[in-house]
Specification:
Blueprint (H helix, E strand, L loop, with lengths): L13 E3 L2 H9 L6 E4 L7 H5 L2 E2 L8 H7 L3 E5 L5 H8 L4 E4 L4 H14 L3 H22 L6 E7 L4 E2 L5 H8 L3 E2 L12 H7 L3 E5 L10 H7 L4 E5 L1 H5 L8 H11 L3
Parallel strand pairs: 1-2, 1-4, 2-3, 4-5, 6-8, 6-9, 9-10
Antiparallel strand pairs: 6-7
Length: 258
Amino acid sequence: MQRQVKLPHTPKRIISLVPSQTELLFDLGLEERIVGVTKFCIHPKEKCKQKTKIGGTKKFNFDTIATLKPDLIIGNKEENYKEGIELLEQDYPVWMSDIFDLEDAQQMMQALGKITQTETQANHFIQQISQGFEHLDQLAANVKPMKVAYFIWRNPMMGVGSDTFIHEMIKRCGWQNVLENEARYPEITPEQLQTFNPDLILLSSEPYPFKDKHLREFQEICPSAKVILVDGEMFSWYGSRLRLAPDYFSELVQANQA
């Protein structure tokens, strides 16, 4: 983003604008230094409940933020909105991540570990995650490739294309994303989905909370496809939750082999 962030001292009053990075900060042992989170920051549940809410990821409450007197705000280029970030930058140090793949996520963890002087714990997480994905890679290399369509929204139907972290996770499962030639989060018509002819349709738990009742809708569009619900946090959260993702993906791959 061609920006520099200057911190005169180790931050002691941190606001996080991104749920997955909020969870990472707690896991790094920074509970006492976190003063504000968004209303979508839900992990760890009890600890997030106790923190002041500064609005949503795309609508900040600037008055609340001002009362918290943060000495560091942590956000993400995709999950937050440009106008809000630019306003915050005028008054506070704002550190931003921009994440498309596993390497980006690990670099983010390393950077936040350095900034907050929790490098040892951050490096431990990075090592855990690397080992987990190495095992997943070995599994994925030996399964039959499947054509997969991943959906994040129902009306309109929105899927996941390239240049997204979710796309990277689909590939790490050894699957082919049938929307890989589409930009980021495309709207897809039922007719287009039929043309893509996926073997497997994944309905995410977030941001749209797909439920069992929605399985039939997609099954009617693609009768030959298998349609299942998946944990959206495993596919899209790029913080310390990634430690859990390889085991989840391994079970998913093995349970849905063609």
